[in-house]
Write a structure and sequence with these properties.
The structure holds two protein chains of two kinds.
Chain A lengths: L1 E8 L9 H20 L3 E6 L5 E4 L4 E4 L10 E8 L2 H8 L11 E6 L3
Antiparallel strand pairs in A: 1-5, 1-6, 2-5, 3-4
Chain B lengths: L15 H17 L4 H21 L6 H19 L8 H18 L2 H15 L6 H12 L4 H8 L3 H17 L12 H21 L5 H20 L6 H14 L25 H14 L7 H14 L8 H14 L3 H13 L3 H9 L4 H7 L1 H13 L3 H14 L3 H15 L2
Classes of the chains: A alpha+beta, B mainly alpha.
Chain lengths: 112, 425
């Protein structure tokens, strides 16, 4: 079984939701995480603070990013267990942010 | 980082965000000033975003409401700290002023003060110089945490119209420097009457409009009841009228679910399954009606609630005490001489086998011709009464008019069934 990192840095429409809609949306996330836990797919995860910096090149150029203007709603990452990329992608497709223009970055964790 | 520990599915109580939004906005507006309502709204939105982020990846706190309030409180203190309004005093004094301000902010977040702030907000939203539809929109937005889209759905209007109303209301508040306060002395009573009117309107929007979807209509009724309950719980406002209004809402909503069948068709009072009426709500209704009788104040809410109670207490439609209901309508007419009351009274007359008199009463309503041209209900009732009186021609005439005037499919269905009965003689 391989491990994958799912990184959520959605500029999701949920930022403009009404309180009622936000609660409903959050409930979808709870259900998703719960489901992954039950199936023992979910290993760990953590939220990430808003913003973030990029340090780049020999000059160590510091910029805001990668989403400077980011209105991240659910920013964070999961480590999940999956057979292969296809399986990891299939899991990511259930991310509740996708219908709201959200995005999931899927990266395999290299086993040392 | 958390591991793969299992927990029971995470769930928070229904409408938590919506209800907490109202509370947070009320407290924050009291801190920032009513003219900074937009700032308060932003802070609330940020608190929710933070909750979404944190609760999803970690866990729901033991007391989600308190967690949200804490975030709002911290943000409020941040805003206060960023102000540099103490330029013309020594550092020592500035620190002291700052300290005092923070203490006051802290106090505003106590349970008692939160409720008080909400009450003040209700009074502000029901400002007498705002027109009714603006009052309702503002109340739903700031106190009940509805979005413009949700308000539009609830009030059967579009989002742009709601936005216009909110803009108008918020502008008025800014320009007239409306404060979050409980009106003092002889200003309290008229303002309370205004609040009752708005809550009554809110409730009726939910209870009567058959076009909006059931869920949002129920929400509106619950919201009106929640705010009315808040009124009765505060020291400044526990009044017979508030108890009477709350009682009326409880009694009416006890029948909420039995009024429509599974196909969304209307079930008339006569055919409703009384066992489906919510006895808990009925008991609450009687309880508050009882409380409302303390003192010597008699309002329309008292009378309307007494009428609703008569219906609730009748074991069957046939056993309804129409005589007593008629007396109550007579009394109501003295306080509220409006076409809708005359119409309802006429229906009661007909139950007492005075259908001819009932028709006459309706026909004598001022501007009845205009009402018949625009409102389906007057036609529907008249058609019904003529049918009862075996006047098929008139029954058909008015029922057809009613059919054309309503856009609700369930109402159309009901009228169509009656027309069939007329044709079948």
């Amino acid at each position: 079984m391989k491990e994958f990192m799912l990184i959520f840095r959605s500029v999701s429409r949920a930022a403009n939701f009404s309180p009622e809609e936000m609660q409903a949306h959050m409930q979808k996330w709870f259900a998703w995480v719960e489901d992954l836990r039950k199936k023992e797919i979910y290993s760990s995860g953590a939220p990430l603070m808003k913003g973030g910096k990029m340090v780049k090149g020999p000059e160590a150029l510091v910029t805001d990013g990668p989403f400077a203007e980011s209105k991240e709603v659910i920013g964070g990452f999961f480590i999940i267990k999956a057979e292969n990329y296809d399986a990891a992608i299939a899991i990511s497709k259930d991310c509740p942010d996708l219908p709201l223009d959200g995005c999931v970055e899927v990266r395999e964790v290299m086993k040392m | 980082m958390i591991g793969g520990h299992t927990s029971s599915p995470q769930k928070i109580v229904d409408h938590l965000f919506r209800h907490e939004a109202g509370k947070m906005i009320a407290v924050l507006s009291r801190i920032f000033g009513m003219h900074n309502l937009a700032l308060a709204e932003d802070v609330v939105q940020e608190a929710f975003l933070k909750a979404m982020q944190t609760w999803t990846f970690e866990r729901i706190p033991d007391n989600p409401a308190a967690w949200l309030m804490q975030v709002a409180r911290n943000k409020a203190i941040d805003v206060i700290r960023r102000q540099h309004n103490f330029q013309h005093c020594s550092k020592e004094i500035a620190q002291q002023l700052q300290h005092e301000a923070e203490n006051t902010v802290e106090q505003y977040f106590s349970a008692n003060e939160i409720a008080d702030s909400q009450l003040r907000m209700i009074f502000a939203c029901c400002h007498p110089l705002l027109n009714e539809e603006d009052q309702v929109a503002l109340t739903l937005k700031t106190i009940s945490g509805f979005s413009t889209a949700e308000i539009g759905r609830a009030l059967l209007t579009n989002e742009a119209t709601v936005q216009k109303r909110l803009y108008r209301a918020k502008n008025f508040i800014k320009e007239n420097n409306v404060q979050l306060e409980i009106p003092a002395g002889n200003q309290l009573q008229p303002r309370l009457d205004m609040v009752y009117t708005v809550l009554y309107l809110l409730f009726n929007e939910g209870y009567n409009s058959l076009k909006a979807d059931e869920l949002i209509r129920k929400d509106l009724c619950m919201e009106a009841m929640r705010l009315c309950l808040l009124l009765t719980e505060r020291n400044a406002t526990p009044q017979p009228a508030a108890f009477a209004l709350l009682s009326l809402m409880c009694l009416q909503s006890s029948r909420f679910s039995s009024r429509l069948d599974e196909n969304n068709c209307i079930i008339l009072l006569e055919q409703q399954e009384r066992s489906k009426w919510d006895t808990e709500l009925m008991d609450m209704g009687y309880y508050y009606l009882n409380l409302s009788s303390k003192g010597n104040m008699l309002t329309v809410y008292h009378i309307e609630s007494a009428i609703a109670a008569e219906h609730c207490m009748a074991a069957s439609f046939e056993e309804t005490n129409w005589q007593r209901i008629l007396k109550l309508y007579d009394l109501l007419l003295l306080h509220k001489q409006v076409p809708a009351v005359i119409l309802n009274r006429a229906v009661v007359l007909s139950q007492l086998h005075q259908t001819t008199a009932a028709i006459k009463e309706i026909m004598q309503i001022e501007n009845i011709q205009k009402l018949l041209q625009t409102q389906y209900i007057y036609n529907a009732v008249l058609g019904d009464l003529f049918f009862k009186n075996s006047d098929a021609d008139n029954a058909e005439k008015y029922l057809t008019a009613a059919y054309k005037l309503t856009s609700s499919t369930s109402e159309k269905k009901l009228i169509a069934d009656k027309l069939t009965a007329v044709y079948n003689g």
